[in-house]
């Protein structure tokens, strides 16, 4: 993997460990010569992961919609800052640039980005690993919900397993490097539920 897109909050959240792990993820990516692709802001967990990369001498590429330039405070110290016209263009560009995705704690935007990448993978539009760094159990409820989707016949088990999860950065990166995408389609036949 040459580049990983990280989706995360533009706020720090309530637990210091979120910021610590975001910074550590950035440092680890740089140490492993993996470039960061992210939302381009200098605030919250977004700024922390970029700072971790840059402070370790790594490369960080930001993708920021023009209308968020002042709201999210564009990071001016990046290797490259790509300005785009919309949120959809942002996700498309981030997907084009990366070999895999990691979600850190975040809000609606982070979930929307994560689930769009999962949906694209489920539909066979890409075969990239998609992962959650489950810091301090932040995503436990979401992971349980995906299991309920399988139990209720709305998601195939093989598609639920596309979502890689760990609370350990090195373990998560190893899972991503060894990821094998599913070879079956997404459609669930009624008689198989």
From TrEMBL:
<dbReference type="InterPro" id="IPR031100">
    <property type="entry name" value="LOG_fam"/>
</dbReference>
<keyword id="KW-0378">Hydrolase</keyword>
<protein>
    <recommendedName>
        <fullName>Cytokinin riboside 5'-monophosphate phosphoribohydrolase</fullName>
        <ecNumber>3.2.2.n1</ecNumber>
    </recommendedName>
</protein>
<comment type="similarity">
    <text>Belongs to the LOG family.</text>
</comment>
<keyword id="KW-0203">Cytokinin biosynthesis</keyword>
<dbReference type="InterPro" id="IPR005269">
    <property type="entry name" value="LOG"/>
</dbReference>
<dbReference type="Pfam" id="PF03641">
    <property type="entry name" value="Lysine_decarbox"/>
</dbReference>
């Amino acid at each position: 993997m040459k580049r990983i897109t990280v989706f995360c909050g533009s706020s720090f959240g309530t637990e210091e460990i979120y910021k610590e792990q975001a910074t550590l993820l950035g440092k680890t990516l740089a140490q492993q010569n993996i470039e960061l692709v992210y939302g381009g802001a200098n605030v919250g967990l977004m700024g922390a992961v970029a700072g971790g990369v840059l402070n370790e001498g790594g490369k960080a590429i930001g993708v920021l919609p023009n209308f968020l330039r002042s709201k999210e405070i564009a990071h001016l110290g990046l290797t490259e800052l790509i300005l785009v016209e919309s949120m959809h263009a942002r996700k498309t560009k981030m997907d084009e640039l990366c070999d895999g995705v990691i979600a850190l704690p975040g809000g609606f935007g982070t979930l929307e980005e994560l689930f769009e990448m999962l949906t694209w993978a489920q539909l066979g539009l890409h075969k990239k690993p998609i992962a959650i760094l489950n810091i301090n159990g932040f995503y436990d409820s979401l992971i349980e919900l995906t299991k309920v989707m399988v139990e209720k016949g709305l998601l195939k088990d093989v598609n639920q397993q596309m979502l890689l999860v760990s609370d350990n950065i090195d373990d998560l990166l190893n899972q991503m490097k060894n990821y094998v995408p599913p070879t079956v389609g997404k459609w669930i036949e009624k008689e198989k539920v």
